[in-house]
Amino acid sequence: DSGVTQTPKHLITATGQRVTLRCSPRSGDLSVYWYQQSLDQGLQFLIHYYNGEERAKGNILERFSAQQFPDLHSELNLSSLELGDSALYFCASSAGQTNTEAFFGQGTRLTVV
Amino acid sequence: AQTVTQSQPEMSVQEAETVTLSCTYDTSESNYYLFWYKQPPSRQMILVIRQEAYKQQNATENRFSVNFQKAAKSFSLKISDSQLGDTAMYFCAFMKPNSGYALNFGKGTSLLVTP
Questions:
Q1: Predicted confidence (pLDDT) per residue in A74-111, tens digit
Q2: How far apart are CA A109 and CA A99, in angstroms?
Q3: Which of A52, B33, B36, B59 has its CA 20 to 30 A from that of B19?
Q4: Residue of B nearest to A92 (CA)
Q5: Peptide bond into A25 cis (omega under 30)
Q6: Mean pLDDT across the stretch A56-70?
Q7: Is B47 in Cβ contact with A55 (below 8 Å)?
Q8: Given a cut of 70, is residue B1 above it in pLDDT?
Q9: Exposed, middle or buried, A6 (CB in 10 Å: 0-12/13-18/19+)?
Q10: Residues facing A76 on adjacent strands
Q11: How many CB atoms lie within 10 A of CB B73?
Q12: Mean pLDDT over residues B32-56, rounded?
């Protein structure tokens, strides 16, 4: 167990809908990263938050947004969902802004039908 | 942009044998980090080993070791005394400090350890 908790584990929704994925980092970790794993694109970095502030953006679509709350949990919001958004979404956390060791959650499997 | 290439989509090895997984990367940076992550069927991403580019000594973690060739931009993973529990997808990843410490992953190598 990495100490990073993601909910829900599985999510099935229809095209055009909006979903929210939740991540609770390890106790004391201030950084949260979101990654998407799909068959087409592989593992891709989406976004990094540190202590509530956005620090870096990767290949995140405009239909996607994220935030990190004062209690350090993070949410990834996916809207106007398309079939191609079906993927495994990982959250990872690390202690600080510059730590190189990130601990991954078990992921949320999103299926868009 | 940095690219990470894993040229072996699938590999297999017998239990107790040694196997080497290849990874090459492309960067103009001098300060960066390299990683191998393991993803077993449970889909959990597990850090196997980490290498700082400024360190010449190859990293080792128990049965796992790397061959880091900075000039050749090569970072291979050697698994010794392979065990059935090593069956997993293995991802090579690159990280540079000025990109928010985000991981840039290769496509992965599926390793099957057979009895």
A1: 999 999 999 999 999 999 999 877 778 899 999 999 99
A2: 27
A3: B33
A4: B45
A5: no
A6: 95
A7: no
A8: no
A9: buried
A10: A21, A66
A11: 16
A12: 93
